[in-house]
Write a structure and sequence with these properties.
The complex is a heterotrimer of chains A (about 220), B (about 260) and C (about 625).
Chain A: H1 10-36, H2 42-53, H3 57-87, H4 103-106, H5 108-127, H6 141-149, H7 152-179, H8 191-214
Chain B: E1 3-10, E2 17-24, H1 33-46, E3 69-70, E4 73-74, E5 96-100, E6 109-111, E7 114-115, H2 118-127, H3 147-157, H4 164-168, H5 175-186, H6 195-208, H7 219-223, H8 231-246
Parallel strand pairs in B: 1-5
Antiparallel strand pairs in B: 1-2, 3-4, 3-5, 6-7
Helix pairs in contact in B: 2-6, 3-5, 5-6, 5-8, 6-8
Chain C: H1 12-22, H2 28-31, E1 35-39, H3 43-55, E2 58-62, E3 80-81, H4 93-103, H5 110-130, E4 155-156, H6 162-179, E5 183-186, E6 189-197, E7 200-208, E8 214-218, E9 221-224, H7 245-252, E10 257-258, E11 263-269, E12 292-296, E13 313-314, H8 316-320, H9 330-342, E14 354-357, H10 359-365, H11 367-385, E15 394-403, E16 406-407, E17 420-422, H12 440-462, H13 473-492, E18 496-497, H14 498-513, H15 519-539, E19 540-541, H16 551-575, H17 599-602, E20 604-609, E21 618-623
Parallel strand pairs in C: 1-2, 1-9, 2-5, 9-17, 18-19
Antiparallel strand pairs in C: 3-4, 6-7, 7-8, 10-16, 10-20, 11-15, 12-13, 12-14, 14-15, 20-21
Helix pairs in contact in C: 1-5, 3-6, 3-12, 4-5, 5-12, 10-11, 14-15, 14-16, 15-16
Classes of the chains: A mainly alpha (about 220), B alpha+beta (about 260), C alpha/beta (about 625).
Bound molecules: flavin-adenine dinucleotide (FAD), protoporphyrin IX containing FE (HEM) (2 copies), iron/sulfur cluster, FE3-S4 cluster (F3S) and FE2/S2 (inorganic) cluster.
């Protein structure tokens, strides 16, 4: 029989999307928690960062590698699926009324692209400090964040990116569990709301930081 | 009642096509959508024009022949109905109705509203069966099937192979059709021995026919005249994942998945 | 011609077994050397093609739909009979045999019917093994329901979609063989002629419905499983495409046509609503298990059903047939409905309808139980009529449903043309003058899965066939005959559409050769039909061309055959001066208006033989004797 490979079929690729996506979800949640320490003042978050880059450095690298692999797998399969899906309907309908697709499901691709760009900029910005909208200094996460988000367009970029993320997760969290084969009852009364709630929490948890900084609400 | 139709006309496979406008006059609201087209076709014939070609046979929603995109919805506005079960009373008097064939690469247009759905037959041929050559069967009641399993199997088995799922799917994916058959058979004890081979072969065939992947948009489930749930897709994915993870060809023992 | 039924010797219980032993076998290595053409992918054709391929024959299978899965068998709702006696209610092979012979009003061949009853048991086993999701009890065992014409529960069902599920089983088996390259499938291909060489069926000529190409296919044997011809009546419960073309053209090549006038009118269909009506929808007869049939006592009573008090209702089936009540056989229930409507007590806008009322059942077992049993039938009804049958009673009226007649076959299911086998509804074999509910699926599958596979071996092994291929002159002749007919149809370019002719033919048949027939009427029909047929060839308008998908052209060819078949049906009905089963001659009835059989003069199968376009067909008779089921007037009182 043909072996069930994760690369050879749309279902296989989709499973890769789901797993890699959920890995990234895990990171994002942790990262959000980390960021929120900002409200407890400079020392707290800087020491946290110092801890990551110091004692926990190996761990950090492992995480980085895992994330990198996940991101690449995710993007590659996303790209391949998109190509296949586009090719499956060469002639469009003259009239088409979607009934079930959500704004979330419809924006997965464009949202994904936005996220990809964001992540690149974001790493060049805060991790490598290559992009310096304002003068940034190695190690002073607190200062860097404050300096950056006092600039309106930096904040704007982040806020928009977070909306993209929220939409991506609104559909992604719900669909990934189905991709992985969990399904309970015909109408799944339970999963949509949970996905929405989680997406909202993540959205708020991230967005609050730049916004708060911009409006000088951070100690 | 009177309606204006905008219908896709295409002389043959690969030929260029376009939307053409027709008037359907003094149609009874009790008439079915296909009966309305019959009337239009009779008039076209007498006017010396070629009638509109469309697939149909049973006209009671069970053979899966009829296949039209009506006003941008597969099988038209009503849920859980095939085109042939749609009645004119579901439309406003004076409405303009768009009628198009299924638009999926794997379903090339044959003529006007008729498409070639043989891709579905090939998906079944790839594994959508239980190998049980005539003659060898044991007594039917030797296999006990829990009522719930057989009801669930029946829910999936209700698929009429019309292709509306693929037609409605923004990705042109026939996942719902494939999943319906996979879960029908995986739900039953008799289906266990070939369970994993089946899902792998069928999904592979589904892809090589040129259908897209499933992003779980859920359009198919709304379009499906038999209201087959996308939960079947989740169950298909699960079986595929197990097959991929374990590389197992066959599952031993009974039970119903 | 002589009609050799080839019924094996011996006691009826042993006929089939001893016959299977006596029949020759084809050794496995040789099977693939034989090519068998199977026309039709319904229960009979699909099951037959799959099984023959499993055995190793090289099979070519044809159907006019775009997929074998869409054969008209898919529409069967109610269920399939089998003498399993799982309900322990006294059923047995013998009882199923007895019920079927009696139900067929003693016009079928005992030996065939007994074999059918025997095999019924294996069919259920086979289908369950294939994964057909029959209804189950909570314990996991198979559920049964009772059906018209029987007092035991022996009907297996899968929701309201039994035919679909059985067909999918056969279709999946067929696709498996197609995948293995054992069957070559030709969908959207219509058989337009049979090729007979040296008196033996050696192939067919087909039209590719997409390209219009006329093609020849040679074989060692030809099997027709092309279904019934109820669409002669234009309005019937059959699928729009169901047609007589394959068997009719075979008839014109020399196959005898048996009992053409035996048509079944089904009592529970949704009444016609207007001229545009293109087909009638059946409400499965299983509904009669829980529905009570009634009309108002007073003629012309136009009150809403729920406002008519019990005392002013006539539950006429329960009244006239106390022991069977609402489950009286189809022909009887249909005629009773016609009678009350003729009395002016019919309901609904047209006055051609009776009530099928579930109020009592809902009160007894509750709406959910009813929904569980008939949910999708009720939905179907509501979708079509816009009325809610849980609240107001259904309106039903009889409609043409099934044709017991068909090509004459012997015990081996071979027609009078050697090598031409006929299975399923297309043959006349098992149902006599009336078919009991849930027994056509049984027959189709018995023929396809279990009978043809062994009898065809006997034919192939016994006969030394000279090799032929499609270069043979006979194929050329058939091809040009087909091409010529196509040309004529397209050339006429008259003023009337094919449908308008078909509709007119249908109303003639319904009027004079329908539920009740009489000499005067049949004679009128025999005048009108040839006239209309002549006009058809003069004035039909078939648009489009021959070299593309042309649905009008397909229809035209089928209707042309219906004209000729309709005439034969009327002849047969006229010749059979008795009433039996679906054939009710008003001249021959008991004082209570029941069918009056004449076993002395008419206990035979009429097998009509084609004698050319000019000459009248020749009637041959296969006498029927009843050793086991004793001739008696059918009584369901
Ligand atoms: C609405 C309805 C409900 C029914 N319910 C029941 C029921 O509950 N129980 C029961 O026992 N019976 C029932 N019947 C009867 C039963 O369904 C049929 O008698 C039976 O399915 C016939 O099967 P078949 O294989 O002989 O023919 P079909 O299923 O009609 O198949 C005919 C095949 O032949 C092909 N064909 C025909 N002509 C040509 C041609 N010229 N060239 C190529 N191919 C051709 C078609 O494509 C098709 O594949 C019902 C019938 C109807 C109409
Ligand atoms: C407003 C929202 C965000 C803020 C304020 C923020 C802030 C930061 C900061 C300050 C760092 C540097 C940490 C350090 O070097 O110690 C960082 C690193 C990072 N952030 Fe964000 N981030 C945000 C959103 C996101 C999102 C949505 C993602 C992913 C989708 C993300 C992915 C990352 C990654 C991958 C790193 C690099 C981690 C490493 O390898 O060191 N960030 N972020
Ligand atoms: C890096 C850029 C990204 C791109 C290009 C991208 C693209 C996509 C696309 C196209 C899909 C839909 C796949 C399909 O169903 O066909 C998807 C699904 C998903 N994405 Fe992303 N995404 C990206 C980043 C992320 C991030 C950062 C996360 C998590 C924080 C994430 C989580 C998910 C999840 C959970 C799914 C659902 C998978 C499924 O439905 O099975 N993605 N992504
Ligand atoms: S799943 Fe539904 S929509 Fe798709 S083919 Fe089957 S019946 Fe049609
Ligand atoms: S609409 Fe398409 S994306 Fe999936 S859920 Fe249905 S197949
Ligand atoms: S015509 Fe058969 S399902 Fe519509």
């Amino acid at each position: 029989m043909r072996t069930a490979s994760l690369w050879s079929t749309t279902v296989g690729k989709k499973i890769v999307m789901a797993v890699s996506g959920l890995i990234m979800v895990g990171f994002v949640i942790a990262h959000m928690a980390g960021n929120l320490q900002l409200f407890e003042g400079a020392d707290r978050i800087n020491t946290y960062s110092a801890f990551l880059h110091g004692p926990a450095n190996e761990v950090l690298w492992i995480v980085r590698v895992v994330l990198l692999v996940a991101a690449i797998a995710h993007v590659v399969s996303a790209y391949q699926l998109t190509v296949l899906d586009r090719a499956a309907r060469p002639v469009p309908y003259v009239k088409r009324e979607l009934q079930a697709a959500t704004i979330g499901s419809r924006t997965m691709r464009i949202g994904g692209v936005i996220l990809a760009l964001f992540i690149l900029l974001h790493i060049l910005h805060f991790t490598t400090l290559t992009l310096q909208p304002a003068p940034l200094t190695e190690g002073d996460v607190y200062g860097n964040v404050l300096a950056s988000f006092r600039i309106w367009w930096v904040t704007a970029i982040y806020v928009i990116a977070m909306i993209a993320l929220a939409l991506h997760l609104y559909h992604g969290l719900w669909s990934s569990v189905r991709t992985l084969g969990f399904e309970r009852g015909r109408l799944d009364p339970f999963k949509r709301p949970v996905a929405i709630a989680l997406a909202l929490v993540i959205w708020a948890g991230f967005t609050i930081v730049p916004v708060a900084v911009f409006f000088h609400l951070v100690p | 009642m009177n309606v204006t139709l905008r219908v896709w006309r295409q002389a043959g496979p690969g030929a260029p096509g376009k939307m053409v406008e027709y008037k359907a006059t003094e149609i009874s609201p009790e008439a079915s959508f296909l009966e309305m087209l019959d009337v239009v076709n009779e008039e076209l014939t007498l006017a010396g024009q070629e009638p509109i070609a469309f697939d149909h046979d049973c006209r009671e929603g069970i053979c899966g022949s009829c296949s039209m995109m009506i006003d941008g919805r597969a099988h038209g506005p009503n849920q859980g109905t095939a085109t042939c079960q749609l009645h004119m009373r579901s439309f406003e008097d004076g409405a303009t109705i768009f009628v198009e064939p299924w638009r999926v690469r794997a379903f090339p247009v044959v003529k006007d509203l008729c498409v070639d759905r043989s891709a579905f037959d090939r998906i079944i041929a790839a594994g959508g069966f239980i190998t049980a050559a005539t003659g060898g069967a044991q007594d039917a009641n030797d296999v006990l099937v829990p009522k719930l399993s057989s009801d669930l199997a029946m829910d999936s088995a209700a698929c009429i192979g019309c292709g509306a799922c693929a037609a409605a799917c923004p990705n042109g994916s026939a996942s719902l059709f494939t999943a319906a058959k996979v879960t029908h058979l995986a739900q039953l004890p008799q289906g266990q021995p070939e369970r994993y081979r089946r899902v792998v072969e069928m999904v592979a065939q589904h892809d090589s026919e040129g259908f897209g992947g499933c992003t779980l948009h859920g359009e198919c489930q709304i379009a499906c005249p038999k209201e087959i749930s996308i939960d079947t897709i989740a169950r298909m994915n699960r079986d595929y994942m197990v097959a991929a993870a374990t590389m197992r060809e066959e599952k031993v023992g009974g039970g119903s998945g | 011609m002589e009609l050799r039924a080839r019924v094996p010797e011996g006691p009826i219980e042993q006929k089939w077994d001893s016959h299977r032993f006596d029949m020759k076998l084809v050794n496995p290595a040789n099977k693939r050397k034989y090519t068998v053409i199977v026309v039709g992918s319904g229960l009979a054709g699909g099951a037959g093609a799959a099984t023959l391929a499993e055995l190793g024959y090289n099979v070519k299978c044809f159907c006019f739909q775009d997929s074998p899965r869409r054969a008209h068998s898919i529409a069967a709702q109610g269920g399939i009979n089998a003498a399993k006696n799982y309900q322990n209610d006294g059923d047995s092979v013998y009882r199923l045999f007895y019920d079927t012979v009696k139900g067929g009003d003693f016009r079928s061949r005992e030996a065939n019917v007994y074999r059918l009853a025997q095999i019924s048991v294996n069919i259920i086993d086979q289908c369950v093994a294939q994964g057909v999701p029959f209804a189950r009890e909570y314990g996991g065992m198979l559920a049964n329901r009772s059906f018209g014409g029987a007092q035991v529960s022996r009907t297996f069902y899968a929701r309201g979609q039994t035919g679909q599920q059985l067909l999918l089983g056969a279709y999946q088996a067929l696709e498996r063989q197609i995948g293995k390259g054992m069957v070559t499938m030709y969908p959207r291909t219509e058989m337009l002629d049979l090729v007979v060489i040296d008196g033996v069926a050696r192939g067919i000529v087909t039209r590719n419905l997409i390209t219009g190409a006329i093609e020849s296919h040679a074989a060692d044997a030809v099997v027709l499983g092309t279904g019934g011809y109820g669409n002669v009546f234009y309005l019937s419960t059959n699928a729009k495409g169901s047609n007589a073309t394959a068997i009719w053209r075979a008839y014109k090549r020399g196959a005898a046509f048996a009992n053409p006038c035996f048509t079944q009118i089904h009592p529970t269909c949704i009444p016609k609503s207007g001229e545009y009506q293109s087909k009638l929808t059946l409400m499965s007869e299983s509904l009669r298990n829980d529905g009570r049939v009634w009309v108002p006592l007073a003629r012309g009573d136009k009150r809403k059903a729920d406002t008519i008090p019990e005392s002013e209702r006539d539950y006429y089936l329960e009244r006239m047939y106390p022991s069977y009540g609402n489950l009286a056989p189809r022909d009887i229930a249909s005629r009773a409905a016609k009678r009350v409507c003729d009395e002016g007590r019919g309901v609904g806008p047209t006055g051609l309808g009776v009530y099928l009322d579930f109020a009592a059942a809902i009160a007894r077992v509750g709406e959910d139980a009813i929904r569980e049993r008939y949910g999708n039938l009720f939905e179907m009804y509501q979708r079509i009529t816009d009325e809610n049958p849980y609240k107001v009673p259904m309106r039903i009226y009889p409609a043409v449903h099934y044709t017991m007649g068909g090509l004459w076959v012997d015990y081996n299911l071979m027609s009078t043309i050697p090598g031409l086998h006929v299975i399923g509804e297309a043959n006349f074999s098992d149902h006599g003058a009336n078919r009991l509910g849930a027994s056509a699926l049984m027959q189709g599958l018995a023929d396809g899965y279990f009978i043809i596979s062994s009898t065809i071996a006997d034919y192939l092994a016994a006969k030394k066939l000279a090799p032929v291929d499609t270069t043979h002159a006979a194929f050329r002749e058939a091809e040009s005959r087909v091409a010529e007919m196509t040309r004529k149809l397209l050339a006429t370019k008259g003023t009337r559409t094919v449908d308008s002719f078909h509709r007119e033919l249908g109303s003639i048949m319904w009027e004079y050769c329908g539920m009740a027939r009489n000499e005067a009427g049949l004679k009128i029909a025999l005048e009108k039909i040839p006239k209309l047929r002549a006009e058809f060839w003069r004035d039909v308008n078939v648009p489009g061309s021959a070299d593309t998908l042309n649905q009008a052209l397909e229809k035209a060819g089928r209707v042309a055959d219906f004209f000729e078949l309709a005439e034969l049906m009327c002849r047969d009905a006229l010749e059979r001066k008795e009433s039996c089963g679906g054939h009710f001659r008003e001249e021959y009835q008991t004082p209570e208006g029941e069918a009056l059989r004449d076993d002395e003069h008419f206990a035979y199968v009429s097998a009509w033989e084609y004698a050319g376009d000019k000459a009248a067909p020749v009637l041959n008779k296969e006498p029927l004797d009843f050793e086991y089921v004793h001739l008696a007037q059918r009584s369901y009182k």
